Amino acid sequence: MQIAILGPLSVRADGVGKTPSAPKLRTVLAMLALNANRAVHFEQFVEELWENNPPASAATTLQTYVYQLRKSLRLAGSAEDGATVLLTRPHGYELQVPRADVVDAVRYSALLDQARDRHDAGDLEACAELARQALALWRGAALSDLPLGPTLAARATQLEESRKAALDLRFEAELALGRHRRVVDELAGVVKANPTHEAYSAKLMVALYRCGRRVEALDVYHRVRSDFIAQLGIEPSATLRSVHQQVLVDDPALTLPAPRGGGVSETTIGLDNGQIDQNGQNARATEAVVRSIDDNGTVTESSAIEVVSVVRADAEGDLVPLRPAAAEALGPNHLPSDVPDFVGRDEEIRELVRRCCAARTKLTGGSAVVEITGGPGAGKTSLLVHVAHRVRASFPDGQIFVPLAPVQRGEETMADVLAGCLRACGVPLSPAPSMSELVNVYRDYTATRRLLVVVDDAARSAEVDLLRPSGSGSLLLVASRRRLYLRGVCAPVSLAPLTVNESLELLGQFIGRRRMLEDLDCASALVRMCGRLPLAVAAVGGYLSYRPNWSLRRMHDRLSRDPGAVLRLPCGEGTVDASVRASYGTLRGPAQEAFRRLASIDEFTVPDAVKLLGRPGELVREVLEDLESAGLAEEIGERGGSGPHRYRDVESNVDVLRPSTSDVVYCVPRLPSFAGRLLAREAEPAAREAAVATG
Fold first, then answer.
1. How does DSSP assign 74-88, residue by residue?
2. Exposure string for 471-481, b = 16+ CB within 10 A, e = fewer
3. Which of 16, 236, 391, 445 is the most exposed place for a label (fewest CB within 10 A)?
4. Is the confidence at residue 523, as pLDDT, over 80?
5. How many whole angstroms separate alpha carbon 99 and alpha carbon 455?
6. Are strands 85-89 and 92-96 parallel, antiparallel or unpaired?
7. How much is the CA Rg of the chain, to the nearest whole Å?
8. Helix runs in 82-144, H state only
9. Residue 415 three-state SS
10. CA–CA distance, 195 with 227 (Å, rounded to integer)
11. For residue 166, which of 133, 121, 124 has the smallest C-alpha distance?
């Protein structure tokens, strides 16, 4: 059994979700999990459940809750069974867990304690890794989907402060290891989310300074100082002022010490601590060191890059770098800022990171390709950038980010894109390079480097092939509106809508958890109206965040009267309608017509579509495959199949499947169907004019 409280409450047993739905049961379980292997007194439960107004039957009611938990989660038994059990203690109850990983908060605390111990012992590499593992357990604000009483509210605050301390510890270790380029973007996002946390701001200033961005480092201080004076009437702390002064005078203390002797020391490349050839894991590292020794028997600075980039496998099959040199290898770092509090997609992130990790061990056969696909508004770009930040450290020669939306809009050509990439990487070009020259220069630049090339909004495989690194050990990470069937691609990760809990967590980030919990039923209805699409949920959340006096019921009533209104709500510079239209623009002509005509139908089969479109069956099948590839239609099952009954999801326009024939049943998802009807209305005048013109 796994109980997760570092985010929405979640319980899984044997891979199956077992999370209680009743609010009081969830509260009791959270109290027990937070105090795992410790008794919780009866009075603590009463205070949390009813505060100052407990019912006369409080004791009996609590016993009922405990009985229901034991029955539904199979927590009955004795402490000797080696399983998770709920025990009765004098004056209370205790959830006894056999291992630290049963409750994520317990596992988190253990990892953080180990990280602090390694920091105190001077093992910064282990400290950073342990802190990273601890922070990876968080899925959002602790207990974000529970109404918090006095005890849980205090513990949630305590956990959040501990999370900040873990982040601070990790950043401190990463900076001491010379990884300022890896953490600078993440630090910028964390500072934006925590503007009054001076320790984060100080570390961001140091990271920016070491990256050669001195002006930006000074700007961080001025923003913090202005906010402190305007909001609190005080100056920043002496520590932050000291870092500011060091940046002003170019204090050498801000830089990491360079290797002695003009070369690379054994300590720098990890020869002194048993890393080389330990248990046979570092044979490749040893060979690289031998190859890098020149005729005088020394390791030269020019050959050190190869040594530092060699990686070894750890116990879990993942790869970690050898102890880094004092300064990171200089290379392009073009990734946009990461999302500070990314919501959901845990399974997809693990799978994508696994594939990316496998890609970086590749030594022959060209670069690997990992593709993210999904329908309009599924959050492909956010996930793409988030995963890129997770794996960027594995590609020491740089990260290149290529948005192809301007190409799809006709604002740029692929020649413009290639030239821009190369110039941003510092590659000299002739004044007016031809396409063939650009392709050859790009292939030459990428042939000997381990690069992460991130391509967003790809629409055609030919565009992606032009950006494919030519050498081995690089990775091409692609987000596309439709399946591109790229050569050499790993099995693509296709994004479904978020779960209801993930959608609520995302909504809560915009409007605040307390406001959401005041009318949780209405909030749940809102995210279902959004089809659980991240873009739509974010649009509704952003709209409500600017209207603090609006109730969730008022927003619900508005969308009930005009369900297509969510298409028009802005989220940044985009809307769901614009995203659907962009996917629609990737369709061929017959598929565009089919989308407009099928969008008004709840469900249909191939024979239904043949009758409606008046086209041959084979062509209709190709059209439906085109719609499905673009995320504008879904195959939802078969009528009359022998499998279990299939029911319509609340977010799609599909009724209960009635047994008739074995035809495959399709539908257009909820929000694209609204957009498709709008496109159909817009197309009608043009069709009438064309009919008149042709007589």
1. T--S-GGGSS-EEEE
2. bbbbbbbbbbb
3. 16
4. yes
5. 42
6. antiparallel
7. 28
8. 104-120, 124-136
9. helix
10. 8
11. 133
CA neighbours closer than 13 Å in the CB half-sphere of residue 485: 4
Q: How far is CA 290 from CA 266, 285, 287, 660, in A?
A: 13, 9, 5, 71
What's the DSSP call for residue 114? H
Nearest to 513, CA basis, from 10, 144, 157, 161: 144
Closest CA to 193 of 396, 34, 342: 342
| pLDDT on residue 203 | 94
**CA–CA dist 91, 35 (Å, integer):** 15
**Cβ proximity of 336 and 300 under 8 Å:** no
Query: What are the residues facing 319 on neighbouring strands?
Result: 313
Cβ–Cβ under 8 Å, residues 353 and 472 = no
Quick one: which H or E segment has residue 369? strand 368-374
How far apart CA 438 and CA 210 sit, in angstroms, is 32
Give the SS3 label for residue 293. strand
Asked if residue 230 has pLDDT above 50, the reply is: yes
Token duo for residue 125: 């590499």
Across 557-572, average pLDDT: 85
| Helix or strand (DSSP H, E) at 221 | helix 214-231
Angle, alpha carbons 132-491-641 (nearest 5°): 120
Amino acid at 162: S
Would you state the pLDDT for residue 491?
A: 63
From the centroid of its chain, how far is CA 252? Answer: 37
Helix (H, G, I), strand (E, B) or coil at 553: helix
CA nearest to 467, candidates 438, 490, 492? 438
Q: In angstroms, how far is CA 30 from the centroid of its own chain?
A: 26
Q: What distance in Å separates the CA atoms of residue 326 and residue 304, rounded to the nearest whole number? A: 12
- Per residue in 85-131, pLDDT tens? 888 888 889 998 888 888 999 999 999 999 999 998 889 999 999 99
- End-to-end CA distance of the chain: give it in Å, rounded: 71
CB 394 within 8 Å of CB 551: no
Tokens of 593: 């017509």
Alpha helices in 250-361 (DSSP H): 266-269, 283-292, 301-309, 346-360
pLDDT digit string, tens, across residues 613-625 = 888 878 888 888 8
- Would you say 526 and 559 are in contact if contact means Cβ atoms under 8 Å apart? yes
Per the DSSP assignment, residues forming a β-bridge with 372 are 479, 493
Helix (H) and strand (E) counts in the chain: 29, 16
pTM of the full structure: 0.53
Is pLDDT of 138 > 90? yes
How far is residue 437's CA from residue 214's CA, in Å, rounded to a whole number?
A: 36
The burial class, CB within 10 Å (0-12 / 13-18 / 19+), for 347 is exposed
Sign of dihedral through CA atoms 296, 299, 305, 307?
Answer: positive
